[in-house]
Amino acid sequence: MVTVPRRTKYGPQRPPTMRVAPPRGPTVSAPDLDVDGLLDDRANRIIVCCGAGGVGKTTASAALALRAAERGRRVCVLTIDPARRLAQSMGLRELDNMPREVSGIRGTGSLDAMMLDMKRTFDEVVEAHAPPAKAEQILANPFYIALSSSFAGTQEYMAMEKLGQLHAESVRAGRWDLIVVDTPPSRSALDFLDAPERLSSLLDGRFIKLLLAPTRGPARLLSAGVGLVTATVSKLLGAQVLRDVQAFVAAFDTLFGGFRQRAEATYALLQTRGTAFLVVAAAEPDALREAAYFVERLTADQMPLAGLVVNRVTTPAASLSAEEALAGASRLDPHDSTQSAVAGLLRVHAERVRVQHREARLRRRFAAAHPTVSSVAVPSLPSDVHDLAGLRRIGELLAG
Amino acid sequence: MSPRGSTDHSTDWPGVRLHVVTGKGGTGKSTVAASLALALASRGKHVLLCEVEGRQGIAQLFDVPPLPYAERRVAHGPDSAAGQPGQAGDVYALAIDPESALMEYLSMYYRLGRAGKLLDRFGVIDFATTIAPGVRDVLLTGKVYEAVHRNRRGKNHRQYDAVVLDAPPTGRIAQFLDVNSELAGLAKVGPLRSQADNVMSLLRSRLTTVHLVTVLEDMPVQETADGIAELHRSGLPVGGVVVNQVRSRALDDEDREQAMAGSLPREAIETDLVKAGVDVTPQLVDGLLQEAREHAERRALEDSQRARIAALDVPTYDLGRLPDGIDLGGLYELAADLIDQGMA
């Protein structure tokens, strides 16, 4: 029996900022992450890419999936909210919540790609598990509509649900031997792990039970306290809301167990040997802080961490210090056209070196606090990725 | 009105009391919100900077301990701002979480002592703040509303000339602010509903404006355009676009064109590098030329994004990329840049 770790009720608990790590010598460098080894190992059946929003997680997922496919695996990639052009590069034109084959894959492998439609996934689960009349009742309930289209954790919950479905299909039909999952662009990388538990524990929580009390009728609940509670909620939100929620809960009651069971099963699946987590970050303080939280959480939950991908790293092409470059630039005549151009070249270089130093410092700190986490740095490209060739290029850079 | 409202006419946003700052993840929206707060404080205003996502981003930017649900001073405006002592502005910060906001709301309007605890015990607070759709956002914006309108109620609280809200990201901003329609399908009556109506009337008024932060890349610019369209649809006031992390202009148009075409005069460059006192090797020159080409390519992409931003037809403000990263000193630099460009 697997228990999803309980959260305290006031949001995900962050570990204290002070890190406990073995003291290391002055030269701390993380072990290199062997991406091709990870993709080629047939025992790996699920790769989850997680990290803060805006770090290039979706692109990294797509690039990994493409590379795996071109190395002979039969891959399905579940993306959450891809940029329009990235979606187009994989031939995804609409959100139809179904994996579609990506054409143009080289070699014997295959790549299917899909975008998650959270509301549709939720609706489909309801339709699949409730009798038709009840399903109709649920789908029309105002509380359900709001919950399935705007609750902050629904996307994460549905990403988990979809992953469970894809995995079941891959086991049953053998259509895929690797599923690559992108995670929703949450404010916190931890939301992906926490939201399903949050939603299911709330749907299963005391207040919902309280609302169900009239239909279930345990008399001991009907104390003065309950009356006060429901009266206050009615007063705050209006009695209609309470009635909607009650109707929803009554209709949804038989589905709770299944939801919870599947979320727990998927959670357990994430803890097995066949799963690998890749934490994606940019070389920025916020993104690396999120990555650190996530690495610590994965370790605490005994989830298999494959390593860290640091995206869009700055790499100078010339070896000259920033100080020398700037000093040189200042010696040139700004009014001479070639000299000013050369001064420009030196300034462009100096900025790149300074950014590189800052990024390297941030990465060293991460490595010092997490010396066992393998990592790979992906140099930033001068242009955006919007076709398979671009994804292939990112894949090469990921493989080092 | 603001006691120092008379100085407002020199900015692009006269009379605005609530600056909402949004932006796609990774574009630096919290940095811009903090810089804007500092900029307003530099103009002698008393500013409250709020965050609502539980990230403690303000504390990290200002290098102070994590913020509680209480207003804490995090910065002074420069003393020279308003000339006289006592006239200098300051920045207070507040991390708003929905649970505390709800408990405060209940105790303020219902004097619920015991009942509040009881609600908590029955999981109602949890339910209302995490699952009941829209309620969470009404509570968060409701607290902001209270801070903006505080002086009118004349309570014994700190009063602010301006409130800067570090809001949820662009993809969610219209939904977050349009609390009315979020609640519409649900609470049709009741005090939370009227709270939502109050918040809405502030957000749609001339006291409020919503600024969007972007960087010059395809997806953030696309989200900015989508966000503006959504704000317009919801009748919410669109402010400026802050273009963050702008690359340096070290090479002029002609040099960049040549760099891209690979036609920069290599020999002349080598000669000038020697003049500059640099040890010239073929690898060094190759490297510099490659960096120049990549810089020019990136700049060309940025220029095309800039054209898309110009088409949005809103005031724009540029903030340069700080190669050494953001620290408190960097925030003051960015604040000065915003003032120079008329944002505050």
Describe this structure in words.
The complex is a heterodimer of chains A (400) and B (344). Chain A has helices at 35-40, 57-70, 84-89, 118-129, 132-140, 142-150, 154-173, 191-203, 206-216, 224-237, 239-270, 285-300, 322-330, 337-369, 388-399; strands at 46-50, 74-79, 100-101, 110-115, 178-182, 275-282, 305-313, 375-379. With 400 residues, chain A is of the alpha/beta class. Chain A has a domain at 31-206 and 259-317 and 373-398: Rossmann fold (3-Layer(aba) Sandwich), CATH 3.40.50.300. An eight-stranded mixed beta sheet of chain A has the order 3-4-2-5-1-6-7-8, with helices on both faces. In chain A, helix 12 (285-300) links the parallel strand 6 and strand 7. The two termini of chain A are 40 Å apart. The model of chain A is unreliable at 1-26 and 215-221 (pLDDT under 50). With 344 residues, chain B is of the alpha/beta class. Chain B has two domains: 8-247 and 321-340, P-loop containing nucleotide triphosphate hydrolases (Rossmann fold); 253-298, no CATH class. Chain B is 50% helix and 14% strand. Chain B contains 14 helices and eight strands. Chain B has an eight-stranded mixed beta sheet, sandwiched between helices. Chain B is elongated and about 80 Å long. Mean pLDDT of chain B is 88; it is low at 1-6.
Task: Describe, in short, the structure shown.
By secondary structure, chain A is of the alpha/beta class.
